[in-house]
Specification:
The protein has eleven helices and twelve strands. Helix 8 links the parallel strand 5 and strand 6. The protein is α/β, with parallel strands linked by helices. The structure holds pyridoxal-5'-phosphate. Pyridoxal-5'-phosphate binds next to helix 4.
Length: about 400
């Protein structure tokens, strides 16, 4: 165990520092061990890790000094934009993660409309609530239909003269649900309000599923009412941590959040953060160039096959799934109380899963770092735990 101490008087030798770092590293879970079954982040490929190290000093708030990194960011946005059908006049930037991307979207929406209510589904990621809190916006919750999608008729009823925007999910955190964005788009156009699509998780999955013939409801810029989309390279995009993405339908939308920064090479900033860790931009670029459509399709297909397999095994135990997973998030229904006990038992066996609340589930996310062997081993332990608790 490392002691937390005050800053030491004298520096210590690198090998001593390394030893301390190793101790800390060994206390963490690592994706390669396959024990973390709920994270939406991942283990990036070597080329992305190398890119991250190479660009470790870059800071895109000073983009004129970092012209090369700035070019990479434009390329990443253009690649993400192309899978989400963005237009010539569209734009975007890489953020520290999905949370900052969602905050940026609501910041733009508030400043364009000067209104202060945001309608969001009750199963939104908590970052949307964080965004409302920071920006002084009132979250107005809309309930879900039987498929755990936002009830768009309720959204329509809740729109009023104070509504600034509606938030929809394209792959929500709890179950990977896509909200009825087409209907919401029409409603938002009619009421002249903005529509943000949180595709932080789904933005790097559904376009590839659509390409190989899955019937994916449209949720991107092909719908005229969609004004902003968040989509994270550091999730299924396989970048290193610190790469969220925000795309805006029209570059002019940025005008409302421009803040002067006279002492930097860029005289105006549109980022929530000042200095921007930009190594992850290079990593996102490296991953996207490495994979291309073909690589992502292969990866998504494999994760979908694994998801289907885990669902089949779970159904064979007579357990109930919340929904047939739209992508790679599996929600197994359990009563609260029982569910917490199972989670603790799993943790004792070194398996880390999480919970969903709409409905109450044990939640598992199949990501590229989970091998067939990891999943078999998990399923065996899961079944044993359930038997011991006499739940089977
Ligand atoms: N939106 C959705 C749908 C998410 O699933 C997440 C995180 O899992 C976020 C936003 C927030 O992303 P981050 O953790 O990168 O801030």
């Amino acid at each position: 165990m490392l002691n937390v101490t005050l800053l030491n008087e004298h520096g210590i030798p690198p090998n001593a520092v390394q030893k301390e770092l190793n101790t800390a590293y060994e206390r963490d879970y690592h994706f390669k061990d396959g024990r973390v079954l709920y994270s939406m982040c991942n283990s990036p490929p070597e080329i992305a890790k190398k890119a991250h190290i190479k660009f470790i000093e870059a800071n895109l708030s000073d983009a004129k000094i970092y012209e090369g990194t700035s070019h990479l960011e434009k390329c990443v946005i253009s690649m993400v934009g192309s899978i989400l059908h963005y237009k010539n006049e569209s734009s975007g930037h890489i953020t520290s993660g999905g949370t900052e991307a969602n905050i940026t979207s609501l910041w733009i929406s508030r400043n364009i409309t000067h209104k202060r209510e945001v309608i969001l589904p009750v199963n939104s990621h908590y970052s949307v609530v964080t965004a409302c809190d920071i920006l002084g916006l009132k979250p107005v919750y809309a309930n879900l239909n039987s498929q755990y999608q936002i009830d768009y008729t309720e959204v329509e009823r809740k729109i009023n003269k104070n509504t600034c925007c509606v938030v929809a999910n394209a792959g929500n955190t709890e179950l990977g649900i896509i909200d009825p964005v087409k209907e919401l788009s029409a409603i938002c156009i009619e009421n002249k309000i903005l529509l943000h699509v949180d595709a932080c998780y789904g933005g790097f999955i559904f376009p590839f599923m659509e390409k190989i013939g899955y019937n994916i409801p449209t949720f991107d810029f092909r719908l005229d009412g969609v004004t902003t989309i968040s989509c994270d390279p550091h999730k299924f995009g396989r970048s290193t941590m610190g790469a969220g993405g925000i795309l805006v339908r029209n570059e002019k939308m940025y005008d409302v959040i421009k803040i002067p920064s006279p002492y930097l090479s860029l005289r105006e900033q549109t980022s929530v953060t000042g200095g921007r860790c930009s190594a992850s931009v290079a990593a996102a670029y490296a991953s996207m160039r490495k994979f291309g459509w073909e690589g992502y399709i292969k990866m998504v297909k494999l994760c979908l096959r694994k998801t289907e397999y885990v669902c089949k095994r779970i159904s064979e135990l007579d357990l109930e799934l919340a929904v047939k997973p739209p992508a790679t998030v599996i929600g197994i229904k359990f009563r609260a109380g029982v569910r917490e006990k199972i989670i603790v038992d799993l943790q004792k066996n070194n398996w880390i899963v999480s919970k969903g609340e709409h409905p109450q589930t044990i939640r598992i996310v199949i990501m590229p770092h989970l091998s067939w062997k990891h999943l078999e081993s998990f399923l065996a332990d899961f079944e044993n735990i359930l038997k011991k608790r006499k739940l089977l």
